[in-house]
Amino acid sequence: MFRGYRFEHPRDETVIAIGGWSYLWAGLFGAFYVWRLGFGRLFLRALAINLLYGATFVGFFFGTLTFIRSALPWYGLQAVAIPVVILLQGTTMLRMIRDGYRRRGWLVRQG
After folding, report:
1. What is the Cα–Cα distance from 26 to 63, expressed in whole angstroms?
2. What are phi and psi of 95, to 5 degrees?
3. Alpha-carbon span 73 to 41, nearest angstrom
4. What is the tally of structural domains in the chain?
5. N or C: where does the chain have the smaller number of CB atoms within 10 Å of the terminal CB?
6. Order of strands, edge to edge, in the sheet holding 107-110?
């Protein structure tokens, strides 16, 4: 599920490895994680995706709050929804990073 990637520069043999913890950092920090790895051009697209995930979560949050009167199931839904949103956002951000390295001509290996 949490595939790691190795990015190898074709000329100078620089290797950058991204592992399982990167999914958490990309899920928590989203567009800023993409920018930190050197993909400033993808920052606005990543930020738009972050806002979309945030709006979806807020909609889900208030939607469940409206329809569920009991607090116990509502907290259970939120306990599941928060990690799911972090996971989805992290996966999306790492996919953007992977594609960015491919466009730059780097070799991408799973590992």
Report:
1. 26
2. -65, -40
3. 41
4. 1
5. N
6. 15-18, 5-8, 107-110
